[in-house]
Amino acid sequence: MCGRYTLSTVDGSDIAQRFSLVEPPAAETLGRFNVCPTEAIAVVHEPQRADAVRWGLRPFRNSGFAPINVRAETAGTRFKFLMKGGRCLVLADGWYEWLKQERKGGPRLPFRYTVDGGAPFAFAGLYDGTGAAILTTAANAVCAPVHDRMPVVLEGPEAEAAWLSGDVGVDEALEFLLPLEDRRVAVAPANPAVNKAGVEGPELLTPPSESLF
């Protein structure tokens, strides 16, 4: 799964250049070290344009369930209407997963995952016109020791363009929903302060000196 992530850069021009955007993403979506569900996130749902949208799809009819993640294995059936016309990129430069401590009642231990040494990347996402969800898949060998799922990270600009393209059908798009290669993913302990929603700052990326890691 992916319940928190980062887009830590504050340089919107760098992000604009990386994703071929006409304008940088909204300032509120940048410099983020603890992006939480329901907050504004930077999403590209049409080429060259990034919008700030809510992290989370509309609540299901007659239900309060508003997914922030969609499983790759069921995306082609349960969310087929969005796989046809609602594919998007969710811009990021890392994500968090948590490991439970062996001792009962101990705090969960956060780890941050990055790609290509901390470069920005795009999660495969689905956009419903108001909000977006991140697609998840089985964990690769780097992520599996902490969690059995990981977000779908698209391989690069070519895959990102194809994911957005209306010329790519659902069956072909599903082929992108695979774990990223192990060699491109790195993991490091993060600061347990990230466990609390609303906490922000670069200090979240590294554990304090007195950490239990």
What is the ordering of alpha helices and beta strands?
EHEEEEHHEEEEEEHHE
What is the terminal separation in angstroms?
A: 23 Å
CATH class: Alpha Beta
Model regions low in confidence, pLDDT < 50 over at least 5 residues: none
Give the number of domains: 1
Biggest pleated sheet: 5 strands, antiparallel
Structural description of this entry:
With 213 residues, the chain is of the alpha+beta class. The protein has one domain (5-205): SOS response associated peptidase-like (hypothetical protein yedk fold). The chain has five helices and twelve strands. The strands form two sheets. A five-stranded antiparallel sheet has the order 2-1-7-8-12, with no helix packed on it. It has a five-stranded mixed β-barrel with strand order 3-4-10-9-6. The mean pLDDT is 93.
What key attributes describe this structure?
single chain; 213 residues; alpha+beta; hypothetical protein yedk fold; five-stranded antiparallel beta sheet; five-stranded mixed β-barrel; 5 helices; 12 strands; 15% helix
Topology (elements, then pairings):
Blueprint: E1 5-7, H1 12-18, E2 32-35, E3 40-46, E4 49-55, E5 69-71, H2 72-78, H3 80-85, E6 87-92, E7 94-99, E8 109-115, E9 121-127, E10 131-138, E11 149-151, H4 157-164, H5 170-174, E12 185-189
Parallel strand pairs: 4-10, 5-10
Antiparallel strand pairs: 1-2, 1-7, 3-4, 3-6, 6-9, 7-8, 8-12, 9-10, 10-11
